[in-house]
Structure formats: structure tokens, C-alpha cells
Amino acid sequence: MDSKLLLVTMTLLSVLLLSACGWGDKEEEEPAEAGADITNNLDGSDKLSGEEETEAIEETALSLEDITAGLKESENPKFPVGSNAVVNASHTDGMEGAMATIKAAYDTTVYSVSYTPTNGDPFEENHKWFVEGEITPVGNQELVQDADVIIHVNHIDGMLGAEGAIDTVEETTVYVVDYTNALGETVTDHLWLKESELETEEESDYDTDSDDGNSDSQ
């Protein structure tokens, strides 16, 4: 009798132990599986966020066609399309004194902007020029002097998406030009030169007869 009771007791204990082990394994597996899913989701979300951010930046980079579509072509510019003019500005190295060919002329508002480049380059002060559409105001501000703006073009590295402030505002005629600079580099579709930064050969004090197509100040 005692042997049978002992056998029954041992059998019940074994069943209980096996059940407890199975329950413990189940509870340990579920959190691990859920944790793996969460990790994968986070990885996927991070990757997707990065892709979406990159696409968003690329979408804000306006093309020349995008920009000029919103501008009014000048009906009677001082320098007609196809004509030549001497550059009297130094926005970039080797520009000043170069002979330029006029590609387009628009009557619009031009802005100079100081901004912090997005690529870690030093603060850019009084960059010339931007037109409406290339910059947008932050919040409900107007495009006036000292207004905070965001830049939507990438004339130079680090410009696209940068935040800055308007330094100057001017109504004028702006030009798209091709030219060869003093370094021998051909620049096409340069944006922008305003009318006062161009001169006829007769007006210019630069020597425009140099062999390389560039000009030296007399």
C-alpha cells in the first residue's frame, strides 16, 4: 500500500515539474521574440527616416527651370539675351573682368543672405544673390531685411537647407550668364548677376582683348 502511494505521489510530482518547465520556457521565449521584432522595427524606422529625409532634401533643391518658371522675363534689358558684357563683380574667384554671354534676363527682387552652411563650412556672410523662390521665410515673416529664411538651392556646397537672414533687398534686372574665369574655367548658367554688375566693353575699364578670353584691369 505504501509503495503504491509513493509511486502515485512521485508521478504527480513529475507531471507538475514538467508543466512548470514548459510554462517557464514559454514565458522566456515570448519576450525574446517580441524584443527582436521591436529591434527590427526600430532599425527599419531609422533607415526609412533617413531615406525620407534625404528624399525631402533632394526635393527642395530647385532646378534652374523651377526657379525661372516663377520669374518675369525682362522686356527691355540693358543686356539682351545673346549679347556680351563684362563682369564687374567678384562673387567667385576669377570672375571679375571676365567676358560673359547673356543667357537670360529677369525683372525681379534680389536678396543677399548670410547663413550657416549645413556641411560645417564657416559662416557665409552676405552671399549674393538669391531670387524669390530660392529662399522662403521662416514662420509668417515677409522677405524683408533681417527676416529669417531657409535656402532651397545649392549654388555651392552646404547651402541647400541652410538657415540664414536677409541682409539686403533690391528690385532690379538679374541675368543668367556663361563666362570663362581668370583660372581658365568655363562657367555655365551662373546665377545671378544684377544689372549694375555688368558693363559694356565701352564702359569697362578691363582689358577684354586677352588671348584667354579673360580680362585684366587697366
UniProtKB/TrEMBL annotation:
<dbReference type="InterPro" id="IPR011438">
    <property type="entry name" value="DUF1541"/>
</dbReference>
<feature type="domain" description="DUF1541">
    <location>
        <begin position="148"/>
        <end position="193"/>
    </location>
</feature>
<feature type="compositionally biased region" description="Acidic residues">
    <location>
        <begin position="198"/>
        <end position="218"/>
    </location>
</feature>
<feature type="domain" description="DUF1541">
    <location>
        <begin position="81"/>
        <end position="132"/>
    </location>
</feature>
<feature type="region of interest" description="Disordered">
    <location>
        <begin position="195"/>
        <end position="218"/>
    </location>
</feature>
<dbReference type="Pfam" id="PF07563">
    <property type="entry name" value="DUF1541"/>
</dbReference>
<feature type="region of interest" description="Disordered">
    <location>
        <begin position="28"/>
        <end position="53"/>
    </location>
</feature>
<protein>
    <submittedName>
        <fullName>Uncharacterized protein DUF1541</fullName>
    </submittedName>
</protein>
